[in-house]
Amino acid sequence: MVTFRLLVWILLSVFLSFPAISYGEKLQVITSIFPVADIARQVGGDDVAVTAIVPAGASPHTFEMKPSLVKTFASAKVFLIIGAGLEFWADQLVQSTGRKLKPVVLSDGMTLIRSTDPHHNESAKESPHASKKSPNAEHGHEHDSGNPHVWLDPYLAKIMINRIQETFSTVDPAHATAYETRARVYLAQIDALDREIADTVNQFTIRQVVSFHSSWDYFIARYGLTLTGVIEKSPGRNPTPREIADIVSKIRSFHIRAVFAEPQFSPKVADVIATEAGVKVMILDPLGGETLTGRNTYIGLMRYNLQIMKEAMQ
Ligand SMILES: [Zn+2]
Question: Which domains does the chain have, with CATH numbers?
């Protein structure tokens, strides 16, 4: 039932919002973050030209729009986003291009993890994510609409792959068979990745995770780990001294060996916590990028992170 409803939704949104593509032309695809761009390339192969608008090293949570993006959008036929508030700037971006390119929201229909932390709800009320003036302000995206980091769960990535394949096949039916074939091959690779992660995580002696922000919640849920602490409960919000003390005491009681920072944010608070608890800071990367060796595919990125976790937790 759900699948049928999703399919109807996709077909409708596709027919209503995509201009026709001419024969022999590559399907121009815009995505928000790099992992979506790579997944779109795996499905689209040579039939698509994909651009990710959040550059390597930047975070979608603190992304600032640039006028040059209007040009990037000029010939785009498909705009893929995660949704759930991750791309809180997407509507404004599309509007500023003067085009009616309705984004395909890849998390639509997924059961999203919702935060129960009371501070989250407070901060969401105090500073709604629509605030453009200070991109570093907490925008509380995860509280309004659920946690957006669905791509870090390979099972949910498979739902994204299917949706991307269906979108491409509808917008560019001349290459539908190629999209289907590539998606099938890629889904099998994701299944193998999923088994590899499950087998590796099963050997971890430490099962508790202190993550930098709420990026790993889906991964943690899928592979039976426990989220013990989150350093920045919403991106850009530093923990209070009391929250720091709480994380430090959990690190000690669970014998956690490392706290995780992320390349898109300053590691300063993670450093403070690690020093106080006498553990290491290690870098998990939820986003990767085309220019980052080993993290320049979605599968490579997941393996990179698995390796870091293995060093910290096996
Ligand atoms: Zn995030």
Answer: 2-192 (3.40.50.1980), 205-313 (3.40.50.1980)
